[in-house]
Amino acid sequence: MTDPARLKIIELDAAGWRNALDVIHAFKSALGSPEGHGTSIDAFVDSMVYGGMNALEAPYRIVVRNHSHLSGEALEFVAVLSWSVQAQLSSGAPLEPNSVSIVPD
């Protein structure tokens, strides 16, 4: 089980997000992703679940604030990324379930 004392809480403000690229830039910045980090869901799942690429390593929770206005591709990117991370963690990834999560406020 993930030790709550080690769990880092990262808060992202979605108020200015209008499209998937806004989401991608915010996540890359929060994770401390290197310049060559991809922009696909798979690239984020790999770096978040398997580690070794981003400055931020598990365990952590990303809390998305001011998300109620999100629609279209921005909302879809956040939802699919959240689901994909949890699906990978549940299917034998090296991290414990819930050691990485994305949640709305």
Architecture overview:
- The chain has three helices and three strands, in the order E-H-H-E-H-E.
- With 105 residues, the protein is of the alpha/beta class.
- It has a single domain (8-104), classed as Barnase, Chain D (2-Layer Sandwich).
- Helix 1 (20-31) crosses helix 3 and helix 2 runs parallel beside helix 3.
- The longest helix has 19 residues, at 72-90.
- The radius of gyration is 13 Å and the shape is globular.
- The two termini are 23 Å apart.
- The model has no long low-confidence stretch (mean pLDDT 91).
Overall helicity? 25-40%
> What portion of residues belong to β-strands?
15-25%
Order of helices and strands: EHHEHE
- So what's the CATH class? Alpha Beta
Uncertain residue ranges = none
Mean pLDDT across every amino acid position = 91
CATH fold name, please?
Barnase, Chain D
- Which descriptor suits the 3D outline? globular
Termini gap:
23 Å
Second rung of CATH, namely the architecture: 2-Layer Sandwich
How many beta-strand runs? 3
C-alpha Rg, in Å? 13 Å
The major β-sheet equals:
3 strands, parallel
Strand order of the largest sheet: 1-2-3
SS class? alpha/beta
- CATH homologous superfamily title: Barstar-like
Count up the domains.
1
Count of discrete alpha- or pi-helical segments spanning 4 or more residues: 3
